[in-house]
Amino acid sequence: QVQLVESGGGLVQAGGSLGLSCVASRITVIISTMGWYRQAPGRQRELVATITRGGRINYADSVKGRFTISRDNAKMTVYLQMNSLKPEDTAVYSCYAEKLIDGTAYWGKGTLVTVSS
Predict the structure, then answer these.
(1) Of 88, 51, 49, 45, residue with least CA distance to 65
(2) d(CA 117, CA 112)
(3) Residue 98: burial class (beta carbons within 10 Å; 0-12, 13-18, 19+)
């Protein structure tokens, strides 16, 4: 069973920056897409950014130009650099990984990002 562990959340003022990382371990399958989703209080989980094994990237419109996703396949780690943070970016950010062969999704427990105004 793939295990995903996030790190890097915390409290930051609006306009500031934070970096998140997620390491995948106990890997017994080939992982294709990795990425980040977030869930704010009272709202549904939403996509933030994803990156395929080959490096193709997709961003939510709300974070384009501010967030950067990257990936180190050798380390099985995905990163999210968040700049120009806004209070509306406050959420629990969860790491996501997808099994290549059948699309099974794996999730981390999440890390809280709080942006104060």
Answers:
(1) 49
(2) 16
(3) buried
Report the residue count for the chain.
117
Distance separating alpha carbons of residues 67 and 96, to the nearest angstrom: 16
The Cα–Cα gap between 36 and 20 comes to 9
Per-residue pLDDT of the chain (117 residues; tens, 9 = 90+): 889 999 999 999 999 999 999 999 888 888 899 999 999 999 999 999 999 999 999 999 999 999 999 999 999 999 999 999 999 999 999 999 999 888 899 999 999 999 999
CB neighbourhood size of 47 (10 A): 15
What number of CA atoms fall less than 13 Å from residue 42's CA on the CB side? 1
Question: d(Cα 62, Cα 72) in Å, to the nearest integer?
Answer: 24
